[in-house]
Amino acid sequence: MPPNQPGPPLPHEREYARHSNAWPFAEARALEKRIGDTVPGKGYVLFETGYGPSGLPHIGTFGEVARTSMVRHAYSVLSDIPTRLFAFSDDMDGLRKAPDNVPNKEMLEQHLGIPLTAIPDPFGTHESFGAHNNARLRSFLDSFGFEYEFQSSTECYKSGRFDQALLAVLKHYDRVINVILPSLGPERRATYSPFLPVCEKTGRVLQVPVIERDVDAGTIVYEDEDGAKVEVPVTGGHCKLQWKVDWAMRWAALGVDYEMSGKDLIDSVKLSGKICRVLGASPPVGFTYELFLDENGEKISKSRGNGLAVEDWLKYAPPESLSLFMYQKPKAAKRLFFDIIPRYVDDYLAHLERYPGQEESKRLDNPAWHIHRGYPPYEDAHLSYNVLLNLASVCHSEDKAVLWHYISRYRPDATPETAPILDALAGYAVNYYRDFIKPLKKYRKADEGDKKALEDLATTLEALPAGADAATIQTEVYEVGKRHDYADLKAWFRALYEILLGQEQGPRMGSFIALYGMGETIGLIRRAVAGEDLGS
Questions:
Q1: What's the half-sphere exposure (Cβ side, CA atoms, 13 Å) at 276?
Q2: What does DSSP say about strands 258-262 and 285-289: parallel, antiparallel, or unpaired?
Q3: Are 184 and 207 in contact (CB under 8 A)?
Q4: Are 49 and 86 in contact (CB under 8 A)?
Q5: What is the chain's Cα-based Rg?
Q6: Could you tell me if 348 and 321 are in contact, meaning their C-beta atoms sit under 8 angstroms apart?
Q7: Which of 62, 295, 321, 524 could form a disulfide with 345 if both were Cys (CB 3.0 to 4.6 A apart)?
Q8: Residue 148, exposed/middle/buried by CB under 10 A (0-12, 13-18, 19+)?
């Protein structure tokens, strides 16, 4: 992954960036327009991402940090003003429901309404549920090499960091609630308060009306369950804010300049922006991204755990392929499930392979530039992920050393040490084959027409000169298909995949045969013609 601190812009890079069509540069230019040439009073431009740690971190959370980091790097090419990125955890929120995908759910249900950082950790590894999930967030962000600073809502409230902004909310109380009230139903309007006191007796975050306010003293009064009036400061962690007001207050208190959010939060962004202005600050430049969908086309949810976890993706593919998934079409809803992984791996490899030959001005439009912060790696021993998957499939192998037996013969100059990208891909490929391809393999027996075509293919391959390259082999495979009674060439290749590989789709046959070996392929074809069980 990229270094934490990229170097200065290369010659002409800044000028190219001003005209790049890549969406991170479009965002960076919008931010540059807001900031101008003057360093903000706080000394830096602040990017922020928010995280609600009520459930385990998932790919959606990572996606926001990945995309924001891409915009941050793009901005650093356009401007010399220092930047910081805060990964902010709303860990002072009261637990609304116990997630389905954690242990000790019954214990969590006894702590509903308690701030996440005051609830015991159901995993038994950290001082609180919030601390556990915060650690998970930091762990997987660190594994991707992101440069960020973790920020805890609990710490910011209790340390006094938010005190001045909280007092500003109290001072402008009526103006703040007048922004929110039109968005609420009649019943909610009657009891709404932006301040949520934390009960000293129960520790719960209370949804109660505020019956008195003292701006000079910095306190509010609410009525407790027993009817007693309770006065509490709005500062020092004695209260937290309703989340839309909390978001606006945070923007104002920290001076956030850029934050992106999902399509489901469009109305919330508008409301929080208005409140931020009431507090005397400017809301950040924003970007709205589409939501991820699971295999059923439903929105991915942290609490339901119905999407891929980062560790799931990383079991089958390099982290850069996940970064590519985040980069591509952020404003389009995208299905996020295991079967998309091979395509994104090969797309990533294609961008890497294309990069060195591109004009310098076009490189900034290449996703590899944004994934690697301007310094994509290069490796000559390139093989596609799909070819490796099919090699594992035809070898029935779950050992990448078996794949290297064939790779080494195809590319004698490549070793696991000299081709680390390829070596990692081989490991990912055997994992993916074992879990997703092997269980679904179903070989079709060749009929008489297939046998004639396959025998023709075997004879044709035998006639090729030793060392024939993939392109030459591919041409001959095409020609054999044309000579036989298939509806079209797609039907011919589908027959090859179904009969030889046990699947409906497959690799570019020329590349596969060159890798697997001419003799091995001819032997496989002859076994199929003889009616042998290729799945054994």
A1: 23
A2: parallel
A3: no
A4: yes
A5: 29
A6: yes
A7: 321
A8: buried
The one-letter amino acid at 317: A
> Exposed, middle or buried: residue 246 (CB in 10 Å: 0-12, 13-18, 19+)?
buried
Identify the CA nearest to 369 among candidates 377, 260, 18, 76. 377
Residue 289: φ, ψ to 5°: -110, 155
Provide the Cα torsion 274, 277, 283, 288; round to 10°: 10
Same fold, 13-183+242-293 and 448-529: no
The tens digit of pLDDT for each residue in 273-329 reads 999 999 999 999 999 999 887 777 777 665 555 567 778 899 999 999 999 999 999
At 356, the amino acid letter reads P
Q: What tokens does 87 get?
A: 């990964």
**Contact in structure between 153 and 91 (CB atoms under 8 Å):** yes
Rounded distance between C-alpha atoms, residue 115 and residue 56, angstroms: 16
The CATH-assigned architecture of domain 448-529 is Orthogonal Bundle (1.10)
Amino acid at 488: D
pLDDT of residue 292: 84
- Above pLDDT 90, what percent of the chain? 76
> How many Cβ atoms from other residues are within 10 Å of residue 156's Cβ?
21
CA 488 to chain centroid: 39
What is the CATH architecture of 13-183+242-293? 3-Layer(aba) Sandwich (3.40)
Q: Are 497 and 505 in contact (CB under 8 A)?
A: yes
CA distance 183 to 117: 30
**What is the distance between the alpha carbons of residues 141 and 132, in angstroms, rounded to a whole number?**
14
pTM above 0.85, yes or no: yes
**Which structure tokens are listed for 139?**
């762990």
Q: Which DSSP state fits 198?
A: B
Of 128, 125, 91, 97, whose CA–CA distance to 110 is shortest? 97
- Nearest residue to 450 (alpha-carbon basis) of 500, 389, 409, 408: 500
